[in-house]
Design a protein that fits this description.
This is AzlD domain-containing protein. It comes from Hominibacterium faecale. InterPro entries: Brnchd-chn_aa_trnsp_AzlD (IPR008407). The chain is mostly helical. It folds into two domains: about 30 residues; about 80 residues, no CATH class. The protein is built from four helices and no strands. Helix 3 packs antiparallel against helix 4. The longest helix has 25 residues. It is extended and about 50 Å long. About 5% of the residues are buried.
C-alpha cells in the first residue's frame, strides 16, 4: 500500500467516525423533541444486542460431550451474580472471563 493510499484510507476512516459522531447532534438538537421510535429503539436495542452476543458466544458449545458446557454456564452465572451484586460492568466482565479461562484450563 502506497503512502497516498494509506493517507486516503485514514482520512476516509476519520470522516466516517466524525460523521457517525456528529449526525445525531444535527438530527436531534437539544431544542427539538426526540421521536418516539428513537426513544423506543434506545430502550430495547441494548438488551437485544447483549442477548445476541450471548447466543453468538454459546453457538458452538456442546452440552453433550466433555465438560457439558460447565465453564460457559459458570461464567454466565458469575457475570450475572457479580453484576447484580456490584453493578459494575468491568468487574462483571473481568470476573466472568477470569473464571471461564480458569475453568477451561482446569477442565480442558
Amino acid at each position: 500500500m502506497t503512502m497516498l493510499q494509506l493517507l486516503i484510507m485514514i482520512a476516509a476512516l476519520a470522516a466516517g467516525v466524525m460523521i457517525t459522531r456528529f449526525v445525531p447532534f444535527v438530527l436531534f438538537p437539544e431544542n427539538r423533541k426526540v421521536p418516539k421510535i428513537v426513544e423506543y429503539l434506545g430502550s430495547v436495542l441494548p438488551p437485544a444486542v447483549i442477548a445476541l452476543l450471548v447466543v453468538y458466544c454459546l453457538r458452538n458449545v456442546d452440552f453433550l460431550h466433555a465438560s457439558f458446557g460447565l465453564p460457559e454456564i459458570a461464567a454466565i452465572l458469575a457475570i450475572c451474580g457479580l453484576h447484580a451484586w456490584k453493578r459494575n460492568s468491568l468487574l462483571s466482565i473481568a470476573g466472568g472471563t477470569i473464571l471461564y479461562m480458569g475453568l477451561l484450563h482446569l477442565i480442558g
